[in-house]
Every structure is written in structure tokens, then in C-alpha cells.
Amino acid sequence: MAEHSETNDRRGFLKEVTAAVAAGTAAASSRAEAEPPPVRSDKFQPESFWADRMEPPDDGKKLGWFIDTRRCFGCHGCEVSCKSENDVPLGNFIRQTFYQDEGEYPTVARMFMPMACQHCEDAPCIKACPCGALHKESGGTVAIDYNICCGHGTCVDVCPYGAIYMDPVAKQAVKCHNCYHRTELGMEPACVPTCPSEAIYFGDLNDPESEINQAMNEVREADVELTQLRPEKQTRPRMWFAGPAVEVIEERIPREGESYSPDAYSIFNWKGDSEVSS
What we know:
Blueprint (H helix, E strand, L loop, with lengths): L1 H33 L12 H8 L8 E6 L8 H10 L9 E9 L2 E9 L8 H5 L5 E3 L5 E3 L9 H5 L6 E2 L6 E2 L5 H4 L7 H4 L5 E5 L6 H11 L4 E2 L11 E4 L2 H5 L29
């Protein structure tokens, strides 16, 4: 009976958190509608320079991501597989899982939010790249041509999600590219099959039978809202989230001019804003 009571307490707590987050989301949406913060555009190149690269190949595909934060328990397996697959150096990340503690002991919960490039339809990084290296691949994947990338770093300056870093050795920009070396062979990105809780979905949004569409439809049928990160930036990201983690953790996600870093794992992030119990 005690175990059953604890389970009900936890479920009740999560419902309260979800309700509070929903209220906060509504308030944030009202503020965003009143005065939407613009994407940084002072570093954009002339449209004639990037317009062609913004258009993906006409292959009928629309690749996207769905992250069910309700299922993620923070194992960081997606990060490890991504680092291994793409030879990401120590201290840098293509993908990172952010977390936030909510509640007061003994009724507490830790929320997790796996993050990576949003593969925006209106990608600021493509508009800002001065050497023309950033472009759209099959399905709308935002990728970098390393035969062209000059390491200017302007893409880092304009990314609203902090999803790009500068490689310390190659001196070139690095970001998620949907593991296109795998998807071209009919495989999924390395992080997807690695996730033990099946919280990460990737696939063709234009295919009604794809796993990602089926998973998102199940969420909609359960009356759970699908949200996106910082929609006020109007980049039309290709990543959707389920669960309250987006609103709770949003402030921890890097912004323009920033990248994922080991600081996300600091013990000072374990509770609130650098608040640690003595």
C-alpha cells in the first residue's frame, strides 16, 4: 500500500507541475505575441547569396524530430552514441541532455530535455554563413560542407538554440547533420536506436506511416500538447517536444553566440538557480 501511495503522490506532483507549466506557457505565448524577439539578422548575407542553399533537394521528404521528454530519464546514451559516431572532441557536444530539478524534498522530480540542432526551415545559420558552407541536404537536413567552411563562426553567433560549436582542431563549425551518412543507407541517426526509453524519434514527416508521425499522433490523441523551442524566433524548427520539460528547462538552453558545454552538468544546476543545500 505504501508503494501505491508513493506512486500516486508522484503522479499527482507531475500533474501539478504540468498544470503550472501550461499556465506559464500561456503567459509566455502572450508576451511573445505582444513583442516577438527577432532572430539576430545583422550578420545575415544578402538573400541572393543564400536563397538557393535554403532550398532542399526536391525529393519529397521532410525529415524531422520528435522528443518525448516524459520518457527521457537522463541516461545520456544519445550523447555518447553521437560523440562516438561523429568523433566529437572532449568538452564539445553535437547533442546534449539538459535537466532541471522541480519540487521540494521528498516530493521531487528531475526533468530532462535532449537537445540538438532544430534543422530550421528558415535557418539563420544558412543566411549568416559568409563562405556558403551551410546548406540544405535531402529532406531539409541543415548540413555543413567542410570543403568550403572557413571557420568564421558567424553561424554560432546567430543560432537561437546554441546548437553549433567550433571544432578546436579543424577550426570549422560542427553541428548535428541528422547522421546523413547513415540515413542515406536507410539507417536512423545513431542517437535514435541507442535511446533505451524510446524518447527520440526521427523520420519523414511527409510519410503518414513513419514512426515519428505515429508517435506524434499518439501524443495528440492523448490530448498532450506538442511544443517547440522558442517559436517566437520564427525559424520554423523541425523538432517537436511532448511534456512540460520544454518550458521548465528552456532558460538553460544556450542562445545566440553560445554552444553546448560541460557546464550543463555542474552540480550547481542540481537545484534551482545555482542553489545547493549545505
